[in-house]
Amino acid sequence: MTSEPRRTLSDVSSDYALDAGFDSLLGTQLIDFSPTAMVIIDPDLRVRRSNRSFREIYGLSPEQLAGTSIPELLPDMDPRVWKLARWVLASGESVEDTEIIGRSVAFPQEERTWRFSHFPLRDREGVPAAVGVTLVDVTDQRRAERKHAEAERRLRLLTRASTLVGRSLELDATLASIADFMVPEFADTCSVYLLDEPLDTDARPELLELRRAIKTRVSGPPLQSCDIPFSAAGEILYCHRNSPIYQAFASGRPFHHAADDESLISGYQTPGFLDYFRRLLLRWGIAVPLLVGRYFHGVMVVHVGVSGRTYTDDDVEMAANLGGRISAAIANARAYAREREVSVTLQRSLLAPDIPAVAGMDIAWRYEPGSLPGRSPCAEPGPPIDAEVGGDWFDLIPLSAGRVALVIGDVAGRGVTAAAVMGQLRTASRAFASLDLPADDVLTHLDNLAQTIGAGPDGALASCVYAIFEPTTATIVLANAGHPPPALRDPDGRVRLLTGGGGAFLGIGGQVFVQTCYPFPVGATLALYTDGLVESRDIDIFQGIGRLQHALADAGTADATADRLMRLVDQANRDDDVALLLVRAAAAINTRTLTIPLTLDLRAVGQARHAVNAALRRWQQPETIETAELLVSEIVTNAIRYSRVPGELVLRSVPTALYIEVSDSDSHLPRVLHPNEQEEHGRGLILVDALAARWGTRPTHSGKTVWCQLDTGTDTGPEIFT
Length: 722
Fold this sequence. Notes:
Its EC number is 3.1.3.16. This is protein-serine/threonine phosphatase. The chain is of the alpha+beta class. The strands form six sheets. Strands 6, 7, 8, 9, 10, 11 and 12 form a seven-stranded antiparallel β-sheet that branches. Strands 14, 15, 16, 17, 20 and 21 form a six-stranded mixed β-sheet that branches. Helix 13 runs parallel beside helix 14, helix 18 (603-618) runs antiparallel to helix 19 and helix 19 packs antiparallel against helix 20 (684-691). Mean pLDDT is 80; it is low at 222-226, 372-387 and 715-722.
């Protein structure tokens, strides 16, 4: 038996090379088994032919489809399908990749997304005779894309929320920026309610009493044009156990609820609150508990309604994440607020509450703590603004014989620590001032002290200016420890910076401070200030000092000048305290001065007594002559006895007092002795202490000065104002 040779595919192809019927058979199978759904529609929109994939989508047999009108067969189909078919027949042009959403017999319970393409099928003359339609189910692809886009959206929301939460420590600013961001990105309305004090999550009060922390945010013209009740900050909301807010508190999780469920809304015990929900047309809500550890601080409530959106489980989870971030911000802001309150209280208690009046001086002062609470939502990106209280201080301290100490300083750093260091330095400067030390010596002592209280290399540093007004010579003597230079306006309007006497910051140690003397005539104004007055994020300190000099040039009272200088503060960009102390030599009061050089001869005692007698008679103060002569005798005698070089006596009369000052080269400060009956010496200062209203000594670089004061209580001449 002879077997036939095996036939190959090429043999079969050659047998049917010219067989058109075979080609048609192959084409039919290609179309019928293609995974792409295909259908041919004639000009009457009747199905001429369809493949298996198309029939499976619509759940129809070939017999049901053949010759049937598409609009009649599929009345729920998007009419664009046959409208596009008509357009293709009329124009002869294809329309590709049109996405249409709808239901089919195979998927009656869900909407699917198909991508349609329509193209003309032509007869032998090239005229469009039918329309070929292909469609691909892209539902799963679009769902995946939407899910991916939604995940990206949630990530962007969380990232932006985290940025807003970390931008400021001021609670109101943080909550306002969060609410503005949530609406309309995530909600149609957003409200934040806080307890006055955090509540343990194990507590179960009958009612929660919360206060609206910020004005409710709403989206869209329909809501924004509505007169919304219960939307202002500060209003109280009472929540019963069945309210969404209470259930969020009790569960510790976001509570997803139907906003129009009156069984839930009735849990709000505030009258008229139901109307609040109805007027806002709210449908779905999420109450997000704001928890920090075991403590409930409040709740954020978001709703959707007019936008047509709904909340999914993913939205609830994202709301929980947002709530965690907001809770941390609330805890930080409240801790910051407590520390700031302590700092401000401490600082204000340590600042000079009452600047004493000084004869012949017009004085004004201003102080503002760092007051930038945060960055507005529309501000440019940047680091958080630190608005903690700083360590600025100033003081005016009466000294001996009508002299006055002027002090201004700034401790680097923020918060309670800076305020505490400032308080110690201010107290110390007053203590050193009571010793009547020279300006440079005061800074030396403050520098030594600063190193022992943590204001050195391991902590904050401090700058300081200590100045002494000398009325006898109409001068200002000052020393500077790293502080912005004081500005002095001369009577002619010229303004100069007092850059002499400069040194490094207090707390560095090992430095020598130098004091410098400047004329301070009638009509001159001295401005002591901290860097917050002249410097901000947008204005460097040199530019700011130049602006201060220009503003100080105008004449005016100390108060008017202080107001003018405070207008220089860059309120929009400052983050530092501002302290300003202005002193103007405003009037030449009826002051008389007599200066008498003293020789080392004891006969100088009688000469000094005679000169004082004559001066007081000229000044019409005869009632003080006897006491003044006794005081001069005792003090001058001691100066001549113990000094090695000639000294000086200064007699100065002001309307209410007579000052006697004797300077010599002996650095030993005298003290009151208590001699017994047999001792011949040591009673001079007892006499001085008995006769003078006040007396004391102060060290000088050349020795010391002993001074005493007699109260006269009378003004023997008119004041001369400039």
